[in-house]
Amino acid sequence: MKNKFKLSIGLMVAALAFTSCNNSSSSKGALGSSIAEKVYIAPGEHDSHYAFLSGGYSGNLLVYGLPSGRMFKEIPVFSQFPTNGYGYSEETKPMLETSYGFIPWDDSHHPDISQTNGELDGRWIFINGNNTPRIARISLTTFETEEIIEVPNSAGNHSSSFITENTEYVVAGTRFSVPVPQRDMPINEYKGNFKGALSFISVDPDHGHMDIKFQVLMPGFNYDLSHPGRGKSHGWFFFTTYNTEEANSLLEVNASQNDKDFIAAINWKKIEEYVNNGGGTMMPANYAHNLYDEATHTGTSTMKKEVRVVNPSEVPGAVYFLPTPKSPHGVDVDPSGEYIVGNGKLSANLTVHSFTKMLDAIEKERFDGEAYGIPILNFEDILAGSVEQAGLGPLHTEFDGQGNGYTTFFISSEVVKWKLGTWEVLDRKPTYYSVGHLTIPGGNSRKPFGKYMFAMNKITKDRYLPVGPEMEHSAQLYDISGDKMELLLDFPTHGEPHYAAAIPAEIIKGNSKKFYKLAENEHPRKATTGAETKVVREGKNVHVYMTMIRSHFNPDNIEGVKVGDKVFFHVTNLEQDFDVPHGFAVIGANNAELLIGPGQTRTLTWEPKQVGVWPFYCTDFCSALHQEMQGYVRVSPADSDIELSWSLGE
């Protein structure tokens, strides 16, 4: 009995210990804190937010869901994209034309969503090409690139693309100042001779079509990032500068000498009025304007030959410099438009300027000298406050709409939450590792949606399974709905995202196009019925008017093609159902396959080099008879007299 009693007591103690251990574990673990539940999206359910991340050196734009962190789509913008044939099809090749010729790559950095009255409206998203200066507009109905405009007189189109609060303008700054106009000159004569062009690109309110309204030719500093004024500061735009030393070599030393660089404040309303009254000078320029027509499913490229430039000295009171310590990267404006945050990479503190004080200093001419004729405001007169010793290497700030700012610190690898007005640090959370930008849905607008924040990190190291010496980059999602930030999720990102824009899904998803109506297809070489299918020879060019539908091509047998011909397959997808694309590929094509949306027409060019019978097929699994969706092209010798013929089911 004693042994049984001791055994019972032992089992009870063990059970209590086990229960206690379990309670401790569940209260501290992920399941106990319900973190997993906060990011879990059940099968068939949808994320609450879209997030659009720049693809960095992929040249594209990535679409993610929040809070799941799942990637839904990669939208090709500045890069050829074999997944769907963008930049390879005859219809989309013009989108990648520039004054330098066909450029099938770029470095995309900063997306920004269109706004109405300072609030995200979900019509378009804009993104910059940094390497070959360009701005693109993507439709958030079709999630396709609709327009790309090249930016002349610019180099390193970094401080873009950011838009004014009614999408009047999308703005593009220049990171690398250059001679304007370009010419052969010694590099060591940089100082005083190089210029930084700040481009204001108007946006048509109905169609979104872009046009360069004017460029402000600024001193030859490096213009790093920018943001528009909003609310009370609407009508102004703010650009950070570094290298106010105007160094041209070893910038890590020579561009870090000054205790303060500048935020350039541009009164674009004043300059707009000046330009509308005939001000400015038309300068010869050569730049491409590429526009995609949804009705014809075709892009066109037009070369433009001049641009209007404005010297700041021509418009007194339009441009001022705000001294800001030290080598600032981001400049960010809070939802009210009062506070202008300068994120000085080499500064111990986070500097915040007051828009109201700025106007007062301008009115009272409280200047601390000038640079190239542009007044420099007195630092103490415009300072709203400083967030003291917040972290190391501040880069970028966004806002939650509850009076709080969130700033990334690259060197100390953290996000810091602080209070507008009191400038006190409220919370800090580590990131993994070397964080760049962060995004709060609507955080760059008058109406932030402050539930989530995610940080985009440059180094991944131990966060994911190793895949060789280079890892995909990392994003980390935080819940910011409470007093303290809570890390919810790591998810990998493609390319090198620099910045992102996010928006509640309900603003966009109901407007998403499901398919293209065949009745509205105005492609000049479409075939929307079997009677319209044909093969036509025009000299050595052979045009195939082809249809596709589950699960055959029409025609599926073609003869009479010769070595040396150029064959254009104009393929129309006859499906009128959501999410039923078809693919098209032919052996020996030296470009890419096509992915053709329902109701859409795309053209693949094929130049047969060898005699034979060559298959073509559907690349996108579309039905149980997908494997049967194929055809043949007979290629005869160049001197053959075989006539063109085509057939289906014979």
Description:
- With 650 residues, this protein is mainly β.
- The protein has two domains: 463 residues, 7 Propeller (Methylamine Dehydrogenase, Chain H); 130 residues, Cupredoxins -  blue copper proteins (Immunoglobulin-like), CATH 2.60.40.
- It has six helices and 46 strands.
- The strands form ten sheets. Strands 6, 7, 8, 9, 10, 11, 12, 13, 14, 18 and 19 form an eleven-stranded mixed β-sheet that branches. The protein has a six-stranded mixed β-sheet with strand order 42-41-44-45-39-46, with no helix packed on it. Strands 36, 37, 38, 40 and 43 form a five-stranded mixed β-sheet that branches.
- A hairpin with a 2-residue loop joins strand 36 and strand 37.
- The longest helix has 27 residues.
- This is Sec-dependent nitrous-oxide reductase.
- InterPro entries: Copper_CuA, Cupredoxin, N2O_reductase_N, Nitrous_oxide_Rdtase_Sec-dep, Nos_propeller, NosZ/Cyto_c_oxidase_sub2, WD40/YVTN_repeat-like_dom_sf.
- Keywords: Copper, Metal-binding, Oxidoreductase, Signal.
User: Can you tell me the number of structural domains?
Assistant: 2
Look at the helices and sheets and give the structural class.
Answer: mainly beta
At CATH level 3, the topology of the largest domain is Methylamine Dehydrogenase, Chain H
- How helical, in percent, are the residues? under 10%
Task: Just give the CATH class of the largest domain.
Answer: Mainly Beta
Largest sheet: 11 strands, mixed
Please compute the radius of gyration using only Cα atoms.
29 Å
| Percentage of residues in DSSP E strands | 35-45%
Tell me what the CATH architecture of the largest domain is. Answer: 7 Propeller
| Straight-line distance between termini | 93 Å
Which word captures the global form? globular
Number of helices: 6
**Low-confidence residue ranges:** 1-32
* CATH H-level superfamily title of the largest domain: YVTN repeat-like/Quinoprotein amine dehydrogenase
Write down the overall mean pLDDT.
94
Protein name: Sec-dependent nitrous-oxide reductase
Keywords: Copper, Metal-binding, Oxidoreductase, Signal
Organism: Bizionia argentinensis JUB59
GO molecular function, one term: nitrous-oxide reductase activity
